[in-house]
Design the sequence.
C-alpha cells in the first residue's frame, strides 16, 4: 500500500511513522509512505500557504492553490498506482472506526491531507477530497497527528506487518468487543495475583474466561457497542 501525506509540518509526521510496527512495515517495503511538504507549493517569495478567512473571524485557512498544486504533483508520482481515496483529516466528519480502517486496507493508494489553523479552503474539500475522517470529538491544532493515527491503524493490518505474537485480530473492536485483561510474569506481585484460570494451561477454560471478560468489560465501559 502507498500512502501520500500532504502537510505543512513534515517533521511532525516523520518521527511517529519511523518506529515500531509502522517503521518496520516501511522498512520491509510493505507500506510505502511519502510525505509532501505543502510549503514547497506555497505562493510567492514567502511561499505563502495560508490566508485570512473570507467573511472575517479568527484564524487562518490553508489556501486552495498550494493544495491543488501539491495534489497534482502527488498524483503525477507513480501514475501506475492510481489514487483510491483523497482523505482529509478533520473534526467535522464521521469518527474513525475499526470497520473503516479494515475497509481502507483493501485500497492500494491513499492521499491524506493534514489541515492546520482553521482548516482548509472548502473548495478543496468539494472538488478533490473523496473521504473525510475525524479521529474523535475534540479539536487538535493540526491534522498531522490524526494522519499518523490513521496510518498506524492501517499499517498493523497489512498482511505480514504484525507478527503472531502481536496478533491484530484479537484486539478490541475486531469482533465488536473490547479486549480481555492481559497479564505477564510474575504470577504474584505485591499480593496481586494473576487469575488462576490463566495459569491452568486449559485452553478451553482460558478461551471461555477471556470471552466472558470481554463481554463484561464491554458492557461496563462501552455498553453502546453491545447496542444496550
Ligand atoms: N475549524 C475546524 C477545526 C480546525 S482544526 C473545525 O472547527 O471543525 C485544524 C486542523 O486540525 C484541521 O484542519 C484538521 O486537519 C486537524 N484536526 C483537528 N482535530 C481533528 C480531529 N479530531 N480529527 C481529525 N483531524 C483533526
Sequence:
Amino acid at each position: 500500500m502507498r500512502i501520500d501525506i500532504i502537510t505543512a509540518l513534515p517533521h511532525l509526521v516523520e518521527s511517529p511513522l519511523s518506529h515500531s510496527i509502522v517503521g518496520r512495515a516501511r522498512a520491509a517495503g510493505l507500506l510505502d509512505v511519502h510525505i509532501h511538504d505543502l510549503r514547497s507549493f506555497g505562493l510567492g517569495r514567502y511561499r505563502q500557504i495560508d490566508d485570512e478567512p473570507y467573511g472575517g473571524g479568527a484564524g487562518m485557512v490553508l489556501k486552495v492553490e498550494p493544495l491543488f498544486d501539491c495534489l497534482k504533483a502527488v498524483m503525477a508520482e507513480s501514475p501506475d498506482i492510481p489514487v483510491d481515496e483523497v482523505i482529509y483529516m478533520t473534526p467535522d466528519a464521521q469518527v474513525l472506526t475499526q470497520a473503516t480502517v479494515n475497509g481502507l486496507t483493501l485500497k492500494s493508494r491513499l492521499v491524506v491531507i493534514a489541515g492546520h489553523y482553521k482548516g482548509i479552503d472548502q473548495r478543496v474539500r468539494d472538488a478533490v477530497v473523496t473521504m473525510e475522517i475525524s479521529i474523535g470529538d475534540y479539536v487538535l491544532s493540526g491534522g498531522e497527528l490524526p494522519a499518523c493515527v490513521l496510518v498506524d491503524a492501517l499499517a498493523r493490518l497489512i498482511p505480514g506487518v504484525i507478527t503472531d505474537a502481536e496478533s491484530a485480530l484479537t484486539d478490541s473492536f475486531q469482533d465488536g468487543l473490547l479486549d480481555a485483561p492481559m497479564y505477564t510474569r510474575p504470577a504474584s506481585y505485591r499480593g496481586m495475583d494473576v487469575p488462576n484460570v490463566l495459569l491452568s494451561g486449559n485452553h478451553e477454560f482460558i478461551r471461555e474466561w477471556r470471552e466472558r471478560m470481554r463481554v463484561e468489560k464491554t458492557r461496563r465501559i462501552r455498553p453502546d457497542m453491545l447496542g444496550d
